[in-house]
Description:
Layout: H1 4-19, H2 25-41, H3 46-62, H4 71-85, E1 99-103, H5 110-123, E2 128-133, H6 138-151, E3 154-156, H7 164-174, E4 180-185, H8 193-206, E5 210-216, H9 222-234, E6 238-242, H10 250-260, E7 264-268, E8 276-278, H11 281-289, H12 291-318, H13 324-336, H14 343-346, H15 357-375, H16 379-383, H17 391-400, H18 404-426, H19 428-441
Parallel strand pairs: 1-4, 1-5, 2-3, 2-4, 5-6, 6-7
Antiparallel strand pairs: 7-8
Bound molecules: guanosine-5'-diphosphate and magnesium ion.
The site of magnesium ion has 4 residues, from helix 5.
Amino acid sequence: MVLEGLGKALRQVLTKVSRSNTVDEALISEVARDIQRALLQADVSVQLALELTNRVKARASSEKPPPGGGVRDFLIRIIYEEIRSILGAERNFEVRPKRVMLVGLFGQGKTTFAGKLARYSQKKGVRADLIAADVHRPAAVDQLEQLARKVNAGFYANRSERRPDVIAREAVERLPATDLLILDTAGRSNLDPELIEEIRKCKETFRPDEVLLVLDAAMGQAAGRSAESFHKAVGLTGVVLTKLDGSAKGGGALSAVARSGAPILFIGTGEHIEDLEKFDPTRFVSRLLGMGDIQSLLERFEALEDRAEAEKAARNLMQGKFTLKDLYTQIDSLTKMGPFSKILSFLPGLAGAKIDEGQVQATQERLRAYRVIMDSMTREEMRDPHIIKGERVQRIARGSGHRPQEVRALLKYYEQTRRAAHGLASNRKLRRQMERQLTAGGGPLSD
Ligand code: GDP
Ligand code: MG
């Protein structure tokens, strides 16, 4: 497994947390120290490691688990979230007919990746073609041709042409537009003006959908600076980190590139054509920490939090306090949890009622639109909907892509619900019934 050392150390931390009897300052400090050591050993920068562990400490002492969550599992979740946060944004590389241009310095793994990407693409049903634009080394063209043969991909080269941009243009003219075209370019020992010029010219004629920088993970933290300077010089859509298999210090490269803002799309995990992984930061961390366990823990917390929010909304409703924010939470729960599953079970008299499915459908669609409209409101408007008039209605309508009538319909719906809530709150018998429902449904799920 990639970054085995880091994974092992982090799993030990989690075991320590789940075996401890209590979560106190001493344990949190110890755990923070362990995490810091593990990150530094994986070459994550001192600053980043410090920031991360400080956040773990601060959150562990200030945040509270949702009812039924358990403090140990809560601490584990905080650790998971913070480690996940240093791996940057998730971006999906879509396999479809398009043009991909590879750039990078010598020996970073460009040509190897070209072959791997061709295999990856063909496995997903899109034929790939490899284009040899490394004009400086004849051996590079042969290497690419062999790879093309190995994965049964198309291949284009022009051994008598010295200008890579001309080759790129020829390839686009000759190869089918229904394929994924992969342009393998030449590298140099550093990003000098000549290399920049060559890449720019290629980009102009090839007009790629993606410009991917291929970087060797053994560069460690320096990979971040490299990604930044390539991005500034030629513009990137993503980064491929290679040789993560061989590098115990891959954590430095991963976190530094993530911090540069360029999304990491793939990681190379070996010399073989199959040794390629789509980089999914969430899955990557889950695997480092022990996939199955962490996944079910996260899902459990999500369910607990949904319920805590739904309960809060119901409590506010009971007390006659009902803001647009509560309505939003309610709608969110309704649309997320499926047809009227939770909130309605809190409402007396409705739990066992017969509901017309078509009507449910229409209602859910309307509620979904309301949620989108509320996403265009300011915090102030959510707190105090009475200020939403005139120009505000227009702005919210424009921002959410709905008509002003729909915004007004939402405000009307809110007002009706609020009135109903108010009526409910003053009905003592109903109140008590609801309170009983809340307590009955509010026990811990497990633990
Ligand atoms: P280029 O100069 O950027 O085109 O680099 P190459 O694709 O020719 O690769 C340089 C060397 O790195 C070759 O020996 C490859 O086998 C090796 N290589 C490339 N990717 C990986 C990887 O993910 N893991 C390992 N272990 N070696 C790799
Ligand atoms: Mg090459």
